[in-house]
Amino acid sequence: MENFSLVFFIDVYNHQFPIHDLRLIGHEFIDISRTQNTEFNKVPMFMKTAPENIDPEKHPDLACIQSIIHDDHRTPEEKARSLKDEGNEYFKEKNYKKAIVSYTEGLKKNCMDIELNAILFTNRAAAHFHLGNMRSALNDATAAKKLKPDHIKAIIRGAQCSMELRNYAGASQWCDEGLGLIPTDKKLQELRATADKKKREADRDARKEKIKAKKEQNEKEALLAAIKERGIKLLKTEPSRHRGLDSEDGDGDGGVSRALADLELDGISSQEATGACVYMDEQGVLYWPVLLLYPEHSQTDFISAFCENSSFMDHLAVMFGEELPPWDSERKYQPQNLQLFFEDPEKGNLYQVDLEKSLLNVLQHQRCSVKAGTPSFIVLVSGSPFSKQFLSGKKVQRLK
């Protein structure tokens, strides 16, 4: 085929066209500007992209080329090599998924050329790497190195995959094998240095995390002991099925697991949305998350840190002082008008709390229990119609 670049006009089929719009194919001029693109797309030479599925009737030329590429009369080595080249073309186009398909088909030919198979594994590893399939890429790099232990590209790829998987010890091992073959390889030297640095950082972070976890464990055990010493009863909840912590101390007695499991079973962890939990300060004083319920208005108040030595009146005087809540339109919830109750979870009886008593004094009562790590109390307006209706039919006892 000849392309004419001289600009002059020629009469073709009684029309004048610039010659640069014409091409000589065989012995005929074809008007490129007037020929439909779809017609040219049928010619392999002019195709920009090949169809996904080649129909022999619609694309006989492509079917012929395809049959040549995948000619069954060729040896497995020739077929594998053609598929490798096909995969490389896809790889250059950054079509890594199709490249993987081609390399995989090449490996399926089971050719006896060990080096060719190693290249197919390495190239497929590269395609997987670019797609973020690090585990598959590492497996292919490992397979390539097994076939050809001195295949430096496979070794570099294995080191890179190990780095991405945060297996820094494994990355160092890959680098050491490669540097044993080529001590001056800069890529491996850089990877080795980075792997060493990352491993030191990971080890340091792991030590910090272990120390932190040990500290938290000790604090929880001390907190549990303090609660038990005070005689406060915690309602046990069903253990989570997914809980099954393993001890990392290597002492074999499962002490850490049992301690943490006990903490959960004893209901210390608050289920409130705020995540507030009971805690102990440096002086050994406990602070509880407390829930106040107002059934008359379907309202609640949440006190995140109620000191065990504080009385209920200390908090109510602030909560219902100068500014009353907007839902108390009748202005009934004055501190001196309020009654406080807790419920016995076993018998359903209500116990009226003296507002001047401390939280600790109430929690130590034999019928009081803490559920889900959060003591809860019912607040009513003394003598109100709702209070009389709410208490009707319930057994109410006043704490002594």
TrEMBL record:
Classification via Gene3D superfamilies: Tetratricopeptide repeat domain
Region Disordered: start-end pairs: 194-214
Residue ranges of domain WH2 in the record: 219-237
Keyword tags: Repeat, TPR repeat
Pfam families on file: Wheel
Family matches, as InterPro entries: Csn1/TTC4_wheel, TPR-like_helical_dom_sf, TPR_rpt, WH2_dom
GO MF annotation terms: actin binding; Hsp70 protein binding; Hsp90 protein binding
GO-annotated biological processes: protein folding
SMART domains listed in its UniProt record: TPR
GO CC annotations, alphabetized: cytosol; nucleus
PANTHER family: TETRATRICOPEPTIDE REPEAT PROTEIN 4
Family indicated by similarity: Belongs to the TTC4 family.
Protein name (Swiss-Prot/TrEMBL): WH2 domain-containing protein
The organism of origin for this protein: Sinocyclocheilus grahami
